Fold this protein.
Amino acid sequence: MIPIIMELLKNWSQIRKHFRESFTTNLHVSIATVGALQSPDVTPIGTFFLNREQATGFYFEKYATTIASHFENTTNVCVLAVNSNRWFWIYSLFSNRFKKHPAIKLYGQLGERRLATEEELKRLRRRMKRTRMLKGHQYLWNTMTYVRPISFTHASKMKLGKMTQLL
């Protein structure tokens, strides 16, 4: 896969749409950071959100303790969202081309941990609404109170040779 740099602000609505569609199929995004030994680390995050305001997002920091421990080394992060919809891939493989990019990466810097705003908590409740009757819902998501904001500097979309050449 060859990354192609996207104009972040110009394509923000397209990026947000891709992340929504990817989350629908994966239920998470992957956030990459660098640890104390300069080794890469990838963490799946199911509570990641992109804001309407361009080039910003946040995630709820309850279980993602590894990312927080890397904050002392560097604030740089990379967030990957892959559209894993089965029909998207079957259609693309059958037609020998993608109608949309299968993956987008956002690059940016972590902000300081802070209490979630009421709007952020509403967004979390709306996303997790379907699971509220399940046993694990209360345990996993009822006590989310802290978020870590991310400001993005650039984005890249994945090109897969001939199958993405028309995009």
In short: Strands lie at 2-6, 29-34, 40-45, 48-50, 56-60, 76-82, 103-110, 114-115, 146-159. The longest strand covers residues 146-159. DSSP finds five helices and nine strands in the chain.
